Amino acid sequence: MNIFEQIADEVQQGNSDSVEVLTKKALAEEISAEDILNNGLVAGMNIVSEKFKNNEIFIPEVLISAKSMYSGLGIIKPLLAESNVKSKGKVVIGTVKGDLHDIGKNIVAMLLQGAGFDVIDLGADVPKEKFLEFVKKERADIVGMSALLTTTMIYMKETIDLLKNAGLRENVKVIIGGAPVTESYADQIDADGYAPDAASAVDLTKKLLGET
Q: What is the CATH number of the domain that holds 7?
């Protein structure tokens, strides 16, 4: 088992101390922070997410795994920031109003950071006015919205309508995601794209901003 597999395995087990030790060990072996993020920490969380989706594990286990992932991320985050010599674009991201789920959104935010994007994470339960405020303030290139409840998906459309009314829609691309969200819903509310998972969200962001 290589060090990436070991990190991924400890993330799945929710062993924060082991994740920290292995992350430091990987850095000592001159493995890049981005590789540790993508091939170790996120790889582990992707398996956790898949198991959660298949009802093999439940929210408490997911949260324990997420906590262990953050323990590794805390070590490499400064290095990720340093390695991003030039930002590829600015992304404002959040889970929409009424929805407190943020694990998937957090993974997307971290992957985007690792890929060289400047990410402003507004957290969960974000009202449309706050998205608008930060799009203006940060001159964002992309707005990423997440919803895990069918009842909160409506706020994605309301946010897009608010951006249109403020005259900002032409300047910013909107991507959406989350368990109940679909490509057809993205088309219906005039979003620029939909991503079924975190890795796809990074690819979509690159594509929309003309990055390779």
A: 1.10.1240.10
For residues 97 and 78, state if they share a domain: no
Contact at 8 Å (CB) between 120 and 134? yes
CA-CA distance, 177 to 198, in Å (whole number)?
9
Considering the entire predicted model, what is its pTM?
0.68
In this structure, are 73 and 134 located in the same domain?
no
Domain count, the chain: 2
CB 92 within 8 A of CB 112: no
The CA distance from 151 to 159, in Å, is: 15
Instruction: Show pLDDT as tens, one digit a residue, over the chain (212 residues).
Output: 899 999 999 999 999 999 999 999 999 999 999 899 889 988 888 788 778 767 898 778 877 888 898 899 899 988 877 775 456 799 999 999 999 988 889 878 877 875 668 899 999 999 999 999 999 999 999 999 999 999 999 999 999 999 999 999 999 999 999 989 999 999 999 999 999 887 788 889 989 998 75
Its domain, for residue 162, covers 90-208
Position 85, amino acid:
V
Distance CA 41, CA 12 (A): 9
Which tokens belong to 71?
A: 């323990």
SS3 call for 98:
coil
Task: Tell me: do 51 and 31 sit in the same domain.
Answer: yes
